Amino acid sequence: MEKIIKQMIWVLFALLFVVQTAAAQAEPKIIKDLKPTVILISLDGFRPDYLDKYPAPTLGLLAKQGVRAKWMTPSFPSLTFPNHYAIATGLYPDHNGIVANTIYAPEFNETFSMSKREEVGNGRWWLGEPIWVTAEKQGQRSAPLFFPGSEAEIAGQRPSYWKVFDDNFPNFERVDMALAWLDKPKAERPTMITLYYSDVDHGGHDAGPDSENAKQAIERVDQAMSRLVEGLKARGVFNRVNLVIVSDHGMARMDPRDVVVLDDYFAAEQAQRVVWNSAMAQIFPKPGMEEAIYSALKTKAPHVSVYRKAEVPKRFHYGTSPRIGNIVVMADEGWALSSRERYRPVPTSESIKYRGGHGFDNQLESMRALFIGYGPAFKRGQIVEPFANVDVYNVMAKILKLKPAPNDGNKATVKALLR
Description:
By secondary structure, the chain is α/β, with parallel strands linked by helices. It folds into 2 domains: about 270 residues, Alkaline Phosphatase, subunit A, CATH 3.40.720; about 90 residues, Gyrase A, domain 2. Helix content is about 30%, strand content about 20%. The chain has 13 helices and 19 strands. The strands form 6 sheets. A 7-stranded mixed sheet has the order 6-7-1-8-17-2-18, with helices on both faces. The longest helix has 24 residues. About 50% of the residues are buried.
């Protein structure tokens, strides 16, 4: 008798598993009560010319049927964190606090980097008002997934839904999480969602923008976009959700031998601190040492541009934040900056493996970023002139019917992109 009871229990467990599996695989419900909604999708390191160079059928179709910019100009420096936060806030890095990937803040004598997770989640670094905070403040829910800044409480506000960054979190599961947020009841459903993919950036860094690595990475993110499109169609909202597809910067081909060992050209002991950001260095001189450092670098260092903070060209919109060093050194395209301590020369016996990098002059062709808009708010089948990435914040605010926070964006871009 006991054996029969155990068998019956196992049968019940099996039936329960089958029912749960069938429910999980069932067609999602049609969403009939959708408010104006934006899904902001970042394809890190995706150059706009990749669309024409590599197979990406889903992205290509969205670009053809929606509105595509010839290119979007990233903010300077053309690095990951500054540009994501410029897109989110409509503020140049000079104004949004995220002046580089690695930052020194004299106001609290602390250093920020992408790997310092405690600081990444500390709201003191993140100035301005990202779009998810604007939404929350005005009664809408937001769900930024893996977007720089989304792990911090900013202006006293957190998004309704967010997750600690995990670059190993599978691409398809990211899509499924966004779709699950859309499946929530109307009162709990976010109207502002973000997705982030690092594949193309990694592929470009590993072997350069003209590599098989880059091609395969683009195939992967396009498959993720296809899954998103099919998921939206299954819910009846593909043509009701607004997709804003962007990249933060482009990618330049780099020869690993092209390195400027910067402290070979000035006396490092004259600097209180040097902040390294691959293609850029910021120098905080010791008292009375600024002119000596500046003059030495200006006259001796090759393949760089050297500026006093106050003399950085206006087109960079860079030079007023206290987090920017008194001396800013920018590498020429394709060159890396290093210290003597960090420098590891390429052995002459090894064959040269070209890589990719960014952080250079934001107006270089290689640094150009992607913009595609698709959905009911966007114009259809158009290619528009280039614009700055700080304009995207106002575009999203307009779609969501939000009053934008003060920002650096040009509202003319809203008219160029939206119906």
